[in-house]
Specification:
With 256 residues, this protein is mainly α. The protein has helices at 4-30, 35-41, 46-61, 69-79, 82-95, 110-113, 121-232, 234-238, 246-254. The protein starts with a helix and ends with a helix.
Length: 256
Amino acid sequence: MADPLSITSGVVGILSLGIQVTQGLTTYYGLWKSHEDTLIHHDIRLDQLEKSLGILQTSISKLDHKDSLATQNVASTIVACENGMKKLKSSLDQCRLSPAQPGLHHRVRDTSRKALFPFKKATLDSLRSTVTELQSNVDNALQILGIDVLSNHGLAISTVVLASSRIDKGVHDTRSDLQGLGQSLDTWFENVNTNIKTTTEAAIVTILDQLGQQLIDLKTDQHQAYLRQSAMNPTLQRQSSSSLAAPATRNRFVGL
């Protein structure tokens, strides 16, 4: 397989030759009076061919994929133009053997001019045929490049769309994960609050029970101390009957 760079270099060289030759022919005929009428009358569009060659040369120099199938097809099409370019170069060289005679003083009559090589019917017919063939090949090459560019742009757009869809999916998955995490946190906080409430209530009940027991024990101790004092003091013994309600008090605190 040929080196893509060498193929591109050869193609650019052929295009450069074509541009130089078309410019030379246009300039040469431009030095003769009514040259435009002559070229237009014979439908020789050197200017159009020159512009197309310039566009094609610029497009090829900017290609990033010089080894693609489209580039190889374009190169083959342009290589097929090489003989036509050489024909134009040969015609230009022969035309220059008949120096242009600009100005009124050196005007050549139409009959005399037609005898010169550049204005012979055979010469003009050959130019028209060659230019038409070259223009057709160049148009084909431009069309291939256009399709290739559109195809690559379409591929690039597809890649961007695919990447975008993957990003959307990633965002959606992340959002779902965050929502799941939020729900888990809500459940955890709810469980924590429930546990705290249950633990707190149980602790309060235990504390109240302990306080109640402590009050009952304190009351019992006070009553026993009073009984001991009453046994030792007859006066207090008579008042002990009012203190017999101590067991009832104990029962009341147990209810707490």
